[in-house]
Amino acid sequence: MPNKNIIREGVDMERQSSRQEVVSARRGVMALSPLLFFLLFYLGSSILLRDFYAVSITVAFCLTAIYAMVLPDGLSLERRLETFARGAGDSNVLLMIWVFILAGIFSSVAQAIGAIDATVGLLLSLLPSRVMYAGLFVVSCFISFALGSSVGTIAALVPIASGMATEMGGGAGLITAIIVGGAFFGDNLSFISDTTIAATRTIGVRMRDKFRANILIALPAALVTAVLYLLLGQDVPEVALSTTGSWYLMLPYLAVILLAVSGVNVLVSLTAGILLSVLVGLGTGTIAPVEVMAKAGEGISGMSDLIIVTLLAGGLLELIRQRGGIDFIVERLTRRVSGKRSGELSFAALVGLANGCTANNTIAILTTGGIVRDLGERLGIDPRRTASILDITSCIVQSVLPYGAQMLIASGLTGLSVTEILPYMYYPMILSGMLLLSILLRFPYPVRTSVLPLEA
């Protein structure tokens, strides 16, 4: 009898554990269901209607936010509203909104005084049409590496890209994607990038060691992308410039780029660019004082959709995090990891899914870094590889997120739909392939390890 009782108790405990696991899985899936709802509604409706302008991304996010709010989770509606408001009012969200506002004002005022036309004219006169695409990509890579910010690079260069597309008679989606792709090259590799700092500090490696492991994957991808753009550019006809403008009209853009490369905060750089645009415009008579205010208002209005989407996304993603969506992903992906290949693949999947749930690559790294570090130590994976995989994957995912800040600001500054830019994001696609090959083939792999104490 005692043996039968023990067996019966063991069976009951196993069944109870199984039921708890099912409940946990259900909660995890429910927590993540708003993201699935958004993708199915926005992309599904657009594909069904064969028109990606038919469904507004702002409306899609409003409906998704409503769905997330009414989703039962054991909390009162008031608590859900508090959680949503906390996410929408996060400091990172509010800072991003300020970037949108200043970028909108700068783009509108600079365009009114002729700064965009003058800058585009200079670039088109210096670069032959057949190397234009590759040249823009290299410039974007250089500026983003020096700046360490994909958002700052996009805010500075995308208006120029839009103007170039106008002069070249089309290809706005491709040219914008070239800038955005190059912006993430620097975001991934720069020593002053938030993602680099987050990856190296959470894993415990030196920046230069992570850079050496990282560049062995990122640089070949960038070179392949540049060659691809060279080939695509062979069919671009020579452009007969309609306007060239005066050199002094380029000063606002040059100032923004130089300040950004010098390490000045993007908000300060954009503010300086706005002030210089106003001074140049008033001094040359290309804009009147009253028109300055009107153009500034137009710039802010043009960013209204982005601001609304950013607030809604912040609140929505905080609800997902609070309900355990990220914890569910972490638990599921790390459950059966045993070897180095599966470990590195799980690192990439983990930070990628976390990035999709937070729409912020730095936060995704900080969220998953500790777990990945401990798992990597257990599996004997070189920490430089671990930090490199975290940074590369987060930048890949962030670059193609329809609701990511970078894609939204590129869309807002050009007036293009996100879906008109995404098909041309060749650098993230090629970088994804290089990362996967690196993991599967175990090459290139660091030989020496240089690890910082975690408390340093």
Summarize the structure.
The chain has 21 helices and no strands.
Task: Compile the SSE list and pairings.
Elements: H1 2-49, H2 57-70, H3 77-88, H4 91-113, H5 115-126, H6 132-147, H7 150-168, H8 172-189, H9 194-203, H10 207-233, H11 251-261, H12 266-284, H13 289-302, H14 304-322, H15 325-333, H16 340-358, H17 361-379, H18 383-400, H19 405-414, H20 418-421, H21 426-441
Structural write-up:
The chain is built from 21 helices and no strands. It has a domain at 91-191 and 214-305. The longest helix is centred in the first third of the chain and has 48 residues, at 2-49. The protein has 456 residues and is mainly alpha-helical.
Task: Name some characteristics of this structure.
456 residues; mainly alpha; 78% helix; disordered C terminus
| Mean pLDDT score | 81
Strand content: under 5%
From the N-terminal CA to the C-terminal CA, the straight-line distance is: 59 Å
What is the rounded Rg? 24 Å
Task: Write down how many β-strands occur, each being a DSSP E stretch of 2 or more residues.
Answer: 0
